[in-house]
Write a structure and sequence with these properties.
The protein is of the alpha+beta class. The chain contains 11 helices and 24 strands.
Length: 489
Amino acid sequence: MAAQCVTKVELTVSCNNLLDKDIGSKSDPLCVLLMSTSDSQWYEVERTEKVQNCLSPKFAKKFVIDYYFEIVQKLKFGIYDIDNKTIDLSDDDFLGELECTLGQVVSSRKLTRPLVLKNKSPAGKGTITISAEEIKDNRVVNFEVQARKLDNKDFFGKSDPYLEFYKQTETGWQLAHRTEVVKNNLNPSWRPFRIPLQSLCGGDMDKPIKALTHTHAVLFTPQAEFECINSKKKQKKKGYKNSGVVSVKHCQYTFLDYIMGGCQINFTVAIDFTGSNGDPRSPQSLHYISPQGVNEYLSAIWSVGNVIQDYDSDKMFPAFGFGAQIPPTWQVSHEFPLNFNPSNPFCAGVEGVVEAYRVCLPQVKLYGPTNFSPIINHVACFAKQALQQTTASQYFVLLIITDGVITDMDETRGADFSAMEFLDGDDGRLRSLSGEAAMRDIVQFVPFRQFQNAPSQALAQSVLAELPQQVASFFSSFKLKPPHDPSPS
């Protein structure tokens, strides 16, 4: 499947303490951005301007990149001392480089790393800083607005208030939106409405907006509570406070607003060890590890884990198995840690999950049945605890890798989750046993066999395609804001 561009990201680059390659002056640095293709070939994307005679440059030229959440987008920033007018950089002095992923940059919001030379040794004390900012001009802001204690402008009855929003332009104020009229009400709540961010403030969340209710004009930024001031009344009346208060109850954040604002994605892996997978010693088994050291379970862990690890700062991932008899009692377990440590089921990075799986596999006996609900309820319990927090600080993702035969379908549905097409809500939301519809589609089912001969990143693209929208809609539904301001400092 083709990956969906989530948004565009603007990268700003600066450096400190670059190597000085010039005699009698300082280096004249330039930054070149390269990206990696699916076959790991590097190609040049763009270059900044050259900064004359400077070892700590702040490049004015920005790099604009299409951002794909479900792809590992490898970046390389190369710094060169430019001493001639040729396009070829091979005859310019190399000052250092940084390889990273776009996921690492956006999840850090501002990434600072040491520069290294081609042999990976330090490039002196040189460092590079990359700041990321989402280009939000195509966003739509969802507003819920109410007012209280507005002035009464009518002689008979109460006022019929409406609200107008104006965008600041070079030539004056431009009407962006007008709400409906709420009849005979000094404490109105208007119907939720949407305004393109470009129409509202040119994509700048800090840019003033003018709002007008009756004859009261105020300036505010898109997320605020503000007072309505009647200037004539203020001049005449001592102790005048306001003519009412308007509050913007809710604005829609994007996926990257949450990520750049400090939201962590907690990644848990659950692996199917039921007998229907086949004897791991047989090449026909999904658990059979080939002479090259891979099997289908390992491929799925690597593919998805390599993407999602950039969004979890400590990179400690709980990993569980289900459907096996485990030592020493050989009782069937549907929720056992791959590292056999119930008090600390965390694995260090994707590599740690892979290693725990390799060690675990020969120690357990594949059995059954295929019960998902214990694992789902385990992760759901942590997710529920996270909802007690006042900001959108954590989102939980559970990757279940299974051969596809669910035994506890009823219990799985009851947990509002599941696997398989039946539980993937693309064609209508999942319903519980009582018939109640799930609040949102949170399941993405992907048959691995469709990707056996596809590029390695194709599986992750399909598995994770819906996640950005799921994250944004979830936090939006609970009106949770990012932990801190998502704009770069």
